[in-house]
Amino acid sequence: MEAKLVVGLEIHVQLATRTKMFCGCKLGFNDPPNSNVCPVCLGMPGVLPVMNKKAYEYAVRTALALNCEVARFTKWDRKGYYYPDLPKNYQISQYDLPMSSNGFMEIELEDGATRKIRILRAHLEEDAGKNQHEGLPHSRVDLNRTGTPLLEIVTEPDMSSPEECRILAMELQKLVQFLGVSEANMQKGHMRFEPNINLHITDDEGQVYKTPICEIKNLNSFRALERAVAYEQWRQREEWKRDHNYTIEKCGKQNRGWDDVKEETVFQREKEEAHEYRYFPEPDLVPVEIEDAWLERIKTELPELPQVMRKRFIEKYGLSEYDANVLTTDRATADYFDAAVKAGGAAKRAANLVTQYGLKTANEKGCGVDQIGVSSGQTARLARLVDEGTVNASAAASIFEMMMTDNRNPEVIAQESNLMQQSDAGALEGIVDEVIAVNGPAVQEVKSGGKKSKKARGFLLGQVMQKSKGQANPRIAGDLLDKKLHG
Ligand code: ZN
Ligand code: MN
């Protein structure tokens, strides 16, 4: 038998607007419960929602980056359901006329293979509130989140492995961060994933079976997404193997939850069909019509996308795939590095400085690399100094650290702190002679040309470096040493 995994993803992305989707309440995080609410988002009768134009713009920006067609005319619909965190008993969403559709996204797997994942649609909607159950003898409802703008992105069922699902999700996170439309902070619940999973099984007689489509609700980490898909792949196969009756015809669709502790999915309920939500057009909001000029403006303002930037770093700057990946993890880092190279820093050296010292410091401080106090111009100059051999790697580390609190050029700092590399052969010669004079056995070893001569040469060079307090240019010192030992 053969079992092909088929997965489509629904992804909810919280947009980084200042205020909610249909009212002026602010979007806070960790604010006191029910402090960012008003009659509109509380769903009081008689209130009138007003669309947040910024949210719509962010949605269009994302849709364009996802190669979607942007609809010139859309409307809003009420999706009816009852839940304690949704006091008005419906969610404003977009049903039959989403703001965008028919896009795609390309992802690269760990083995270098690429996949094109089609995007069915992306639409705007509002979030519900939050129920709190933990540590309480009863449940509480916090409606601060109610009305938060969400972009729901729905892919076609084009993924066929747990890895593809995770990579698509991560690539999407990077994309919305680059676009500046979402913080996409997983800890803050800015991205939630709902994979729809089933298997297409071909048995030994060539008969094809499809297992029920299971939608796993509300996964909020990449790890949970990957694990949940892998678990379902295993579970559905086992279920089917039992009596070949676990099929979509016999069992229908279902919603399942993810138990993060047991690492398994749990049955929740038979899945609703669209008609059960009783969608109907929202009577309190006017439809949205888009003008060409507005759409054009958003198109021209799109930043360079991470995949394009990554490719440019590899092809134009000669970076390794690994470095290019690290440097395009977020836009602040990518822009910072790009600016350093454009300011004249040697690309490979600048990449090393940013990844080894910049990102390390940024991580320690919990900020972006653009906020550690070293400008991209300083990094560019330092990269050039390293490249020219004016300072060596260990001096570069010290200089980089000093630049965090010193705005001057690295040349000045290096000079002042005696960190310039000694490339003057005349000055180095004295040190080399001295080292040769006091290390007779090692010198003999090198001259003999035997097995240990390489190691002995390394030792002598180390001595030269030490005596020069790390300032000797190792290439020049090595040349001098060789010249003196081999005449
Ligand atoms: Zn409100
Ligand atoms: Mn939704």
Q: Features of this protein?
A:
487 residues, alpha+beta, Arc Repressor Mutant, subunit A, 3 domains, ten-stranded mixed β-sheet, three-stranded antiparallel β-sheet, 41% helix, binds zinc ion, binds manganese (II) ion
Q: Could you describe the 3D structure shown?
A:
It is a single chain. This protein has 487 residues and is an alpha+beta fold. It folds into 3 domains: 2-289, no CATH class; 304-416, no CATH class; 425-486, Arc Repressor Mutant, subunit A, CATH 1.10.10.410. The chain is built from 17 helices and 17 strands. The chain has helices at 39-42, 53-65, 162-179, 222-243, 248-251, 292-301, 306-315, 321-327, 331-342, 347-365, 376-388, 393-403, 410-416, 425-438, 440-448, 453-467, 474-486, and strands at 2-14, 69-70, 73-74, 77-80, 90-93, 100-108, 114-126, 130-132, 140-142, 149-155, 191-202, 208-210, 214-216, 254-259, 264-270, 280-281, 288-289. The strands form 4 sheets. Strands 1, 2, 6, 7, 10, 11, 12, 13, 14 and 15 form a 10-stranded mixed sheet that branches. 39% of the residues are buried. The mean pLDDT is 94. The structure holds zinc ion and manganese (II) ion.
Describe the protein's topology.
Elements: E1 2-14, H1 39-42, H2 53-65, E2 69-70, E3 73-74, E4 77-80, E5 90-93, E6 100-108, E7 114-126, E8 130-132, E9 140-142, E10 149-155, H3 162-179, E11 191-202, E12 208-210, E13 214-216, H4 222-243, H5 248-251, E14 254-259, E15 264-270, E16 280-281, E17 288-289, H6 292-301, H7 306-315, H8 321-327, H9 331-342, H10 347-365, H11 376-388, H12 393-403, H13 410-416, H14 425-438, H15 440-448, H16 453-467, H17 474-486
Helix pairs in contact: 3-4, 7-8, 9-10, 9-11, 10-11, 11-12, 14-16, 14-17, 15-16, 16-17
The structure holds zinc ion and manganese (II) ion.
Manganese (II) ion (MN) is lined by residues 12, 125, 152.
